[in-house]
């Protein structure tokens, strides 16, 4: 099985081997040291300020999104949320559930966030801004220079869901003035699902300390307190944290986050060039793409049928879309343990489908 989805993605052999081992007891100085190292490397790769902190939540990416909304926002906030697809919509739902006053910038499928759109929200009393830097459901990578400028001039607390773009695209918390950056284990970190990570600026930590939250499991103040001794309040997904540690160290020893960005970018560009060259009946959903995924419209053939045929007849997984886009869009991920040769296998399979006249 060859996996081009956007998560869970393929893990390297080093990571899979750790998954086969016994899970150790974790209230030890050895495990604390692993967690200190995880925090240090996550901060480094996110280019966070020295006084930022990282907490590790046992739960998928949505758990970190919910914990962030609950712990860093209150009913006194007025949030502005970018909703350009199903992940943007998730932030809207979370603000509804947790009664955070908010407005929504709704974008059509594949549309970018422009300076004109942002300007129409200037000086409207907002306190915070929530965005999925890469809206994975459509493949749009937003222009964070525009967002960062908008947040600076309006003094907004900036929350970014970088779940699918962390390690795939160049991102700096410092340069973008980001207060909260969220990611999770099963995207470009290329580990199994189960851990999500929240990196918090000093401003975010202050908000958490002044917020009286009603949750035991999602209490980030407790998570921060425990992290001071390299621990978590409750039993974490210990095995995945060990896998994350190996993966972060591997990246550190192999050129760092810059090299990892470039490696993923090269695979993405190779795939995009081959798609164009083969002249398949596809069109790119958007111009501003993340290196993490290529999102394609299909002409005259159901995108979901392509997904099913590749899975059942070729042993290749691409990523289907849900809802309205089910038959119109499919996505090809470039994150995880993939190579240019793997791209060739997928391109050959698509060519074969074309010869069989099912594409
Ligand atoms: C994958 C992803 C998530 C998290 O989804 P989970 O299924 O909860 O891990 C959130 N936001 C974006 C942009 C994602 O790509």
Number of domains: 2
Bound molecules: pyridoxal-5'-phosphate
The CATH class of the largest domain is Alpha Beta
Distance between the amino and carboxyl termini: 21 Å
Which regions have little confidence, pLDDT < 50, spanning 5+ residues? none
Helix-strand string:
EHHEHEHEHEEEHEHEEHHHHEEHEEEH
Strand order of the largest sheet: 2-10-9-8-5-3-4
Report the structural category.
alpha/beta
What is the number of strand segments? 15
Mean pLDDT: 97
CATH fold descriptor of the largest domain: Aspartate Aminotransferase, domain 2
Name of the CATH superfamily of the largest domain: Type I PLP-dependent aspartate aminotransferase-like (Major domain)
Q: How helix-rich are the residues, as a percent range?
A: 40-55%
The appropriate CATH architecture of the largest domain is 3-Layer(aba) Sandwich
- Tertiary shape: globular
Rg calculated over all Cα atoms: 20 Å
| Count of discrete alpha- or pi-helical segments spanning 4 or more residues | 13
Tell me the major beta sheet: 7 strands, mixed
Beta-strand share of residues: 15-25%
């Amino acid at each position: 099985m060859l996996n081009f989805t956007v998560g869970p993605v393929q893990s390297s052999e080093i990571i899979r081997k750790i998954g086969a081992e016994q899970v150790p007891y974790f209230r030890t100085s050895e495990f604390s040291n692993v967690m200190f190292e995880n925090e240090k490397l996550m901060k480094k790769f996110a280019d966070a300020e020295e006084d930022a902190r990282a907490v590790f939540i046992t739960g998928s990416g949505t758990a970190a999104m919910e914990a962030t909304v609950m712990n860093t926002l209150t009913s006194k906030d007025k949030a502005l949320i970018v909703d350009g697809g199903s992940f943007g919509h998730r932030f809207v739902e979370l603000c509804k559930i947790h009664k955070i006053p908010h407005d929504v910038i709704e974008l059509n499928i594949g549309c970018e966030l422009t300076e004109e759109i942002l300007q129409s929200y200037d000086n409207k009393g907002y306190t915070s801004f929530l965005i999925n830097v890469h809206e994975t459901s459509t493949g749009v990578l937003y222009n964070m220079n525009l967002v960062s400028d908008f947040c600076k001039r309006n003094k907004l607390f900036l929350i970014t869901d970088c779940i699918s773009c962390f390690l795939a695209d160049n991102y700096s918390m410092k340069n973008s003035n980001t207060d909260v950056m969220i990611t999770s284990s099963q995207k470009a970190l290329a580990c199994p699902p189960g851990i999500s990570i929240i990196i918090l600026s000093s401003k975010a930590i202050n908000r958490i300390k002044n917020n009286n939250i009603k949750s035991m499991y999602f209490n980030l103040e407790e998570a921060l307190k425990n992290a001071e001794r390299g621990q978590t309040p409750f039993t974490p997904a210990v095995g995945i944290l060990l896998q994350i540690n190996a993966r972060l160290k591997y990246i550190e020893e192999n050129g760092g986050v810059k090299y990892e960005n470039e490696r993923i970018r090269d695979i993405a560009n190779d795939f995009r060039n081959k798609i164009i060259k083969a002249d398949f009946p596809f069109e790119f959903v958007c111009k501003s793409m993340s290196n993490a995924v290529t999102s394609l419209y299909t002409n005259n053939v159901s995108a979901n049928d392509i997904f099913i045929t590749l899975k059942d007849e070729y042993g290749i997984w691409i990523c289907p879309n849900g809802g309205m886009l089910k038959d119109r869009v499919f996505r090809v991920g470039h994150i995880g343990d993939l190579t240019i040769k793997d791209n060739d296998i997928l391109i050959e399979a698509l060519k074969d489908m074309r010869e069989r006249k099912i594409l």
